[in-house]
């Protein structure tokens, strides 16, 4: 919209590319195994569930809300998939069923936010616990294995003749669809308007509650899909699948330049940021840094990704107001 | 009327907000024992000047002088410490504290154990109100007092710290005639005690009743200061608007057509009740009333923001159910809200994106927005309404109030509405743009639109409306045709003194 913001965002994405290259260099120096096609293929495939969840989250944050329940929805989806698989229902029924439950979970979040008027931070923190708890109720502590090859190949294998993992294909298709919707359609325009000024959007005839509810439904559905992909990749359905993912998902979205206060962000930035975090974690893992210790770095990145743009904005406005005062006093 | 040495002076004060020059090199002197009226249209800079005296804003250049000494105010507390008390349009009190506590909030008398000495507090407060000649219970909470009584509490509070300068910002805006008289009696009494009173207002009759001298602001500049005996109300208005008054209201006679909007017995509990009226194509119907009388609330219900509890609405003869702004838009009812920044515009969006916002769906094919069509449409309407900007891609946040308002109107025109609800359309708009907005309204009526004009400015209603309905406490108290209109009649009805 505004030239200033476009410039800032363009620069933000440039910054992400620089960061990505820096982490690639860092990874290469940390481990001799880092710079190989098979490592990149593994790394990508490990990232895809988080990447799929980050796409709808970006839209939700741009619309001025948040969804912290994504990882638990993925866990619930994995547990439910295992449960119905044990009942010997065929997968072509199981998977749509699990996605439908994901949509329902999202609808529940959405209605609590838009109809009951509760803050999404609280609602989805609640369902973060609630959906994870439900997953345990559904499947208990067991893990379900014995999946058909076609299913595990989808999670684990590559497109024949390449090193491109199948989940990446799913993500790539989704990412293109999200870029299309957010940046070219009227729906995307409405999402930005809602995030910038919810009241003005409502006073312009935009059905704010409906749009937000649908975004939560989308988030629930795609989180459930991420749960399915995760189950296939691990060849194991467990209630605790995806535990702890929310940190990376939220970090990727905000590091990608989505404004935590709503109204600004690009899908391209989010995609870049997903890989920045993936490369960082992969490099640290190869250097034998434990996942728990990695969280120190990711947590710091999350804070920086919010503090950075805020600081840039503040400096910019300080500059512009100073030059303003100067020009005013020279009159 | 003493023209003694001034207590408080503004010397060459300028203040800017973004692109708007709110005050330009304004000098003004307030003397002891004088009521000094400050008049000007909305957006002339009165409120900015008041906020500078209150220590809320600091001048960009120029200075304040107190008893001839340079004075720098570092916030509202600092203004009070220097004996400058400001009574804002909306009283600023603690609703749950007692009247006496509010009055002495900054120096509550202490008892032997360090607690509040209630007896002393109440007797001091009573003494203070008695000195104003007002019987006011001092041990009741402020919540529940009328606006007029709350103002008196503010005045008492100012006197409790021996204010030498008392600034009143449009104190009569929400008062009945009787309450205004009481306020004036107290104001005169303060003047006679040697307080310098700055009385900000825009009602000529009041100014000429209470003031010793008048200063006029226009577009942020000081135009004239003169004794009331040297000016007529007509002169003063001419100084305020800087042109012949007629041209501010370029109302043309529009042919009146079928009934576009019909409202029968519309009620929203606790807000307004049994409101009935109709608006024909080509007609401009004004809604007058005090703040809180229910004017905006009626518009909000008609636009589907709030729900009605009873009554019927018909558009072009068909019964209409309006549950949301989307419904209202579909029926051709649109609303230009009072608060442009909060409700009217997405400030970070471009002019084009704001204008297209209600119709983004219609501007799309297979979901994809046609940006070329969006730009052309926005350019057309911007030209038609003379929005001054570098291009339609410019962000609306950098536009002046008048141009922002034109963008809001353009956004609704693009939906081709039948009924246009305008809520204070020239609020905070400078004089030049005001006349343009009025011209636009008049043209829209000529094109056959049915227009409801909500305004707190009586001259605007009298200049633009074909008929004026006056609301009092949520009910229509009176209706006047164009030739029956007078400020006195409207005010009488708005304050509950309608002639039967």
Question: What's the short version?
Answer:
With 331 residues, chain A is mainly α. Chain A is built from 13 helices and no strands. The longest helix of chain A is centred in the C-terminal third of the chain and has 39 residues, at 291-329.
Question: What does this protein structure show overall?
Answer:
The complex is a heterodimer of chains A (331) and B (500). With 331 residues, chain A is an all-alpha fold. In chain A, 77% of the residues lie in helices and 0% in strands. Chain A is built from 13 helices and no strands. In chain A, helix 2 crosses helix 12 (267-286) and helix 4 runs antiparallel to helix 10. Chain B is of the alpha/beta class and 500 residues long. Chain B folds into two domains: 6-242, P-loop containing nucleotide triphosphate hydrolases (Rossmann fold), CATH 3.40.50; 248-494, P-loop containing nucleotide triphosphate hydrolases (Rossmann fold), CATH 3.40.50. The A-B interface holds A 1-3, 5, 181, 184-187, 189-190, 192-193, 196-197, 199-207, 263, 325, 328-329 and B 16, 60-61, 303, 305, 324-326, 328-329, 335, 337, 342-350, 353, 356-358, 360-361, 363-364, 367-369, 393, 395, 411.
């Amino acid at each position: 919209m505004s030239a200033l913001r476009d410039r800032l965002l363009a620069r933000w994405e440039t910054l992400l590319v620089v960061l990505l290259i820096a982490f690639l260099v860092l990874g290469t120096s940390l481990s001799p195994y880092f710079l190989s096609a098979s490592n990149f293929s593994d790394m990508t495939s490990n990232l895809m569930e988080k990447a799929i969840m980050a796409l709808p989250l970006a839209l939700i944050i741009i619309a001025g809300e948040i969804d912290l329940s994504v990882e638990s929805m993925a866990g619930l989806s994995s547990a439910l998939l295992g449960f119905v698989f044990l009942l010997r229902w065929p997968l072509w029924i199981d998977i749509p069923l699990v996605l439908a439950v994901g949509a329902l979970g999202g609808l529940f979040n959405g209605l609590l936010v838009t109809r009951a008027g509760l803050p999404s931070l609280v609602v989805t923190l609640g369902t973060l616990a609630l959906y994870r708890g439900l997953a345990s109720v559904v499947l208990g502590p067991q893990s379900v294995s014995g999946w058909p090859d076609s299913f595990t190949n989808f999670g684990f294998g590559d497109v024949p003749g390449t090193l491109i993992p199948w989940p990446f294909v799913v993500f790539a298709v989704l990412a293109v669809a999200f870029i299309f919707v957010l940046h070219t359609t009227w729906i995307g325009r409405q999402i930005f308007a809602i995030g910038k000024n919810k009241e003005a959007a409502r006073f312009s005839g935009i059905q704010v509650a409906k749009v937000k509810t649908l975004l939560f439904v989308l988030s629930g559905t795609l989180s459930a899909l991420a749960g399915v992909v995760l189950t296939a990749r691990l060849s194991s359905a467990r209630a605790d699948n995806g535990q702890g993912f929310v940190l990376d998902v939220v970090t990727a979205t905000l590091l990608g330049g989505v404004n935590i206060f709503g109204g600004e962000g690009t899908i391209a930035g989010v995609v870049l940021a997903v890989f920045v975090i993936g490369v960082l974690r992969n490099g640290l893992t190869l250097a034998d840094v434990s996942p728990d210790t990695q969280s120190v770095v990711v947590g710091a990145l999350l804070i920086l990704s919010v503090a950075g743009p805020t600081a840039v904005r503040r400096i910019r406005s300080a500059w512009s107001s100073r030059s303003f005062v100067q020009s005013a006093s020279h009159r | 009327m003493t023209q003694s040495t001034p207590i408080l002076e503004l010397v060459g004060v300028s203040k800017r907000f973004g692109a708007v020059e709110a005050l330009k090199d304004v000098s003004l002197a307030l003397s002891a024992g004088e009521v000094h009226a400050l008049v000007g249209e909305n957006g002339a800079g009165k409120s900015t000047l008041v906020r500078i005296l209150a220590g809320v804003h600091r001048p960009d250049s120029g200075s304040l002088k107190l008893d001839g000494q340079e004075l720098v105010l570092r916030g509202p507390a600092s203004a009070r410490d220097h004996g400058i008390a400001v009574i804002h349009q909306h009283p600023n009190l603690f609703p749950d504290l007692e009247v006496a506590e509010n009055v002495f909030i900054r120096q509550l008398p202490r008892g032997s154990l360090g607690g509040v000495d209630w007896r002393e507090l109440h007797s001091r407060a009573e003494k203070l109100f008695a000195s104003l000649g007002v019987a006011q219970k001092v041990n009741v909470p402020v919540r529940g007092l009328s606006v007029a009584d709350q103002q008196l509490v503010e005045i008492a509070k100012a006197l409790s710290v021996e204010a030498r300068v008392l600034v009143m910002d449009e104190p009569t805006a929400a008062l009945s005639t009787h309450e205004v008289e009481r306020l004036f009696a107290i104001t005169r009494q303060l003047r006679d005690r040697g307080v310098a009173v700055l009385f900000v207002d825009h009602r000529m009759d009041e100014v000429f009743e209470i003031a010793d001298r008048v200063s006029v602001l226009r577009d942020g500049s000081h135009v004239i200061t003169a004794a009331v005996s040297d000016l007529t109300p007509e002169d003063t208005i001419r100084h305020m608007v800087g042109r012949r008054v007629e041209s501010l209201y370029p109302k043309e006679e529009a042919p009146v057509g079928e009934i576009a909007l019909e409202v029968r017995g519309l009620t929203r509990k606790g807000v307004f009740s049994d409101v009935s009226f109709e608006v024909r194509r080509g007609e401009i119907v004004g809604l007058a009333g005090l703040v809180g009388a229910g004017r905006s609330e009626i518009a909000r219900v008609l636009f589907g923001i709030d729900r009605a509890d009873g009554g019927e609405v018909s558009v072009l003869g068909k019964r209409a159910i309006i549950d949301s702004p989307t419904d209202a838009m579909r029926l051709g009812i649109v609303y230009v809200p009072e608060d442009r920044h909060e409700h009217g515009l997405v400030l970070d969006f471009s002019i084009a994106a704001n204008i297209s916002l209600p119709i983004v769906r219609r501007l799309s094919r297979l979901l994809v927005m046609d940006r070329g069509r969006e730009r052309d449409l926005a350019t057309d309407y911007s030209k038609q309404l003379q929005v001054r900007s570098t291009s339609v891609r410019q962000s609306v946040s950098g536009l002046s109030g008048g141009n922002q308002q034109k963008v809001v109107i353009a956004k609704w025109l693009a939906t081709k509405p039948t009924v246009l609800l305008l809520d204070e359309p020239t609020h905070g708009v400078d004089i030049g743009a005001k006349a343009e907005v009025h011209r636009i309204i008049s043209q829209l009526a000529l094109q056959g639109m049915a227009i409801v004009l909500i305004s707190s400015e009586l001259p605007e209603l009298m200049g633009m409306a074909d008929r004026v309905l006056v609301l009092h406490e949520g009910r229509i108290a009176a209706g006047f045709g164009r030739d029956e209109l007078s400020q006195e009649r409207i005010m009488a009805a708005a304050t509950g003194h309608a002639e039967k």
